[in-house]
Design brief:
This protein is an alpha/beta fold and 295 residues long. The chain has two domains: 120 residues, Aldehyde Oxidoreductase, domain 3 (Alpha-Beta Complex), CATH 3.90.1170; 151 residues, Alpha-Beta Barrel (TIM Barrel), CATH 3.20.20.70. The protein contains eleven helices and twelve strands. Helix 1 crosses helix 4 and helix 6 crosses helix 7.
Length: 295
């Protein structure tokens, strides 16, 4: 079987433009950058260097570039890394040349996007590295900053992780409250199958092995094993294999952190979902330093 080509993650240009424009409007307010306009001559030019101050993985360069492009005045942005690249302290990520006022006015918006998304990519890469010896994949969740989900999920992919559903409309995930109202595990799966089209993935969350045994005959695509210990997860993998040869994919969630993720992956589950990679990721320390252009 030939290897499948994996293309790098990408962001919709219109979404980038809208987010960057909104961020610049928020920062510039009604009067613009009054500090820069009061201290920098209008025709002054400069070169800015964006560099990493720590080890990490880069994500968000398209947003940083768009911030400088949107501010105007013909700034030239040069990327010295690509999203998904690992960097060391001191590594130059990008340079910006042109009008000094424009560079300084766009600096914070560009760095905010770049530091936040690089932080998510870097944290995801730590999780992915911890389970690289297994076949499991680390996945994000819908626990993201409102309005920033697409960018956070993009950063997860830059860090070597996988995306769970983007919203309530692109996959079925039957959780405990759905089960309680619908009347049971099997009933919930059958109802979902009858409601959605054949292209929609149906996943159900279970808390016990008995619920897993009830779910499998109903034919879900994925079963989420919620807050189970590694021992229970191993039993769940064995039950799945004995039922249908392991055709249903298993996802573990709950209690996942860098100290536990390897043990969870080693149980044989296919996916490990955690909000830690998006909601608990520290930003990557990146800095912008300006050098005056005297040429």
């Amino acid at each position: 079987m030939p290897d499948l080509q994996s293309y790098p993650p990408s962001l919709p240009a219109l979404m980038v433009e809208e987010a960057v424009r909104a961020a610049l409007l928020e920062d510039l307010g009604r009067a613009g950058d009054i500090t820069t306009n009061a201290t920098i001559a209008p025709d002054m030019t400069a070169k800015a260097v964006i560099a990493s101050r720590e080890v990490g993985t880069i994500a968000g360069l398209p947003l940083a570039e768009a911030a400088f492009a949107t501010i105007g005045r013909g700034l030239r942005f040069g990327a010295h890394a690509a999203d998904g690249d690992a960097v060391e302290p001191g590594a130059v990520v990008a340079t910006v040349t042109g009008n000094a006022r424009a560079i300084l006015s766009a600096e914070r918006v560009a760095l905010n996007f770049l530091m936040m998304l690089s932080g998510i990519a870097s944290h995801t890469a730590r999780f992915a590295s911890a389970i690289a010896h297994t076949h499991a994949k680390v996945c994000d969740t819908r626990k993201t900053v409102p309005g920033q989900r697409t960018f956070a999920k993009y950063a997860v992919r830059c860090g070597g992780g996988s995306n769970h559903r983007f919203g309530l409309d692109d996959a079925v995930l039957i959780k405990d409250n759905h089960i309680a109202v619908s009347g049971g595990v099997a009933e919930a799966v059958r109802n979902a199958r009858a409601h959605v089209g054949h292209t929609v993935t149906v996943e159900i969350e279970v808390d016990t092995l008995d619920q897993l045994r009830s779910a499998l005959p109903a034919g879900p695509d994925i079963v989420l094993l919620d807050n189970m210990t590694p021992d229970l997860l191993r039993h769940a993998v064995a039950i799945n294999r004995s039922h249908n040869g392991g055709k249903v994919r298993l996802e573990a969630s709950g209690g996942v952190d860098l100290d536990t993720v390897a043990a969870i992956a080693e149980t044989g589950v296919d996916y490990i979902s955690t909000s830690k990679i998006t909601m608990a990721a520290p930003t990557l320390d990146l800095g912008l330093d300006v050098v005056l252009d005297r040429d």
